């Protein structure tokens, strides 16, 4: 049990939501955290479920999505290791507006709502720090919406590919799409046909080459100037 608390605290410390918390505040929240394992395709929660906390993804990948009455899926977010989700519904104490499904086998941390709320009640500074983390998440979401509204399909895809190799600045780069092209297309607010067309266009311009999910960026500086 002590190991799980230590692992939880380390994972929480790397979250933007908790980045401003002190060590003692992190310890308090970690006490209300449990490890959860899930398999590919498993639903972590459905739209309309009542939250009992929020999640931190340690390993694997999760999609947050909506589904229309006609069965058309819209992927709103692809969550990777080191990121959290479900906080807003927890704080609002309202049902989830989306569903969360594992795209691969996953290891997660579930942070209990009562542990977070108890820490907030006991320490107003904790609440201010949590608000700071949520504000950063809101800033990211606004940037996301702006990108979809103001950028072309090609620019959205180029930006996505560059984010996959953000630590590399020049030369050739190898990246792998973290999930199917269909899901990536939905995440970028594109149709699968548009995504395929843009990939071919970038390949014809010798900016990338594609083999399955593997993408080779032939020249990062050229691709970055395209964006």
Short description:
By secondary structure, this protein is α+β, with helices and mostly antiparallel strands.
Q: Please count the beta strands (DSSP E, at least 2 residues each).
A: 11
Domain module tally? 2
- CATH architecture call of the largest domain: Sandwich
What spatial order of strands do you see in the largest sheet?
1-8-3-6
Describe the secondary structure blueprint for this structure.
Blueprint: H1 2-13, H2 23-30, E1 33-38, E2 43-45, E3 53-59, E4 62-67, E5 73-79, E6 84-85, H3 87-92, E7 99-102, E8 106-112, H4 113-122, H5 124-150, H6 153-164, E9 173-176, H7 181-187, H8 192-204, E10 208-211, E11 214-217, H9 220-226
Antiparallel strand pairs: 1-8, 2-7, 3-6, 3-8, 4-5, 4-7, 9-11, 10-11
If you had to describe this structure to a student in words, what would you say it looks like?
- The protein is built from nine helices and eleven strands.
- The chain folds into two domains: 2-149, Jelly Rolls (Sandwich); 151-226, Arc Repressor Mutant, subunit A (Orthogonal Bundle), CATH 1.10.10.10.
- The protein is globular and about 60 Å long.
- A four-stranded antiparallel β-sheet has the order 1-8-3-6.
- Helix 1 packs across helix 2, helix 4 packs across helix 5 and helix 6 (153-164) packs antiparallel against helix 9.
- The longest helix is centred in the middle third of the chain and has 27 residues, at 124-150.
- It has 227 residues and is of the alpha+beta class.
């Amino acid at each position: 049990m002590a190991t799980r608390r230590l692992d939880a605290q380390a994972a929480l410390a790397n979250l933007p939501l908790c980045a401003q918390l002190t060590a003692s505040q992190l310890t308090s929240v970690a006490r209300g955290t449990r490890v959860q394992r899930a398999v590919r395709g498993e639903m972590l929660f459905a739209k309309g479920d009542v939250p009992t906390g929020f999640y931190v993804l340690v390993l694997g990948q999760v999609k947050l999505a909506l589904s229309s009455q006609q069965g058309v899926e819209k992927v709103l977010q692809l969550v990777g290791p080191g990121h959290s989700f479900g906080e807003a519904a927890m704080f609002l104490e309202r049902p989830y507006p989306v569903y969360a499904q594992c795209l691969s086998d996953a290891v997660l941390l579930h942070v209990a709502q009562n542990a977070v709320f108890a820490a907030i009640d006991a320490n107003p500074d904790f609440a201010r720090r949590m608000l700071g983390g949520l504000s950063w998440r809101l800033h990211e979401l606004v940037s996301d919406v702006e990108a979809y509204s103001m950028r072309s399909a090609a620019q959205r895809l180029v930006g996505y590919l560059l984010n996959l190799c953000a630590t590399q600045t020049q030369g050739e780069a190898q990246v792998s799409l973290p999930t199917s092209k269909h899901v990536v297309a939905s995440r970028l607010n594109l149709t699968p046909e548009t995504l395929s067309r843009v990939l071919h266009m970038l390949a014809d311009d010798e900016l990338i080459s594609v083999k399955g999910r593997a993408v080779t960026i032939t020249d990062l500086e050229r691709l970055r100037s395209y964006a």
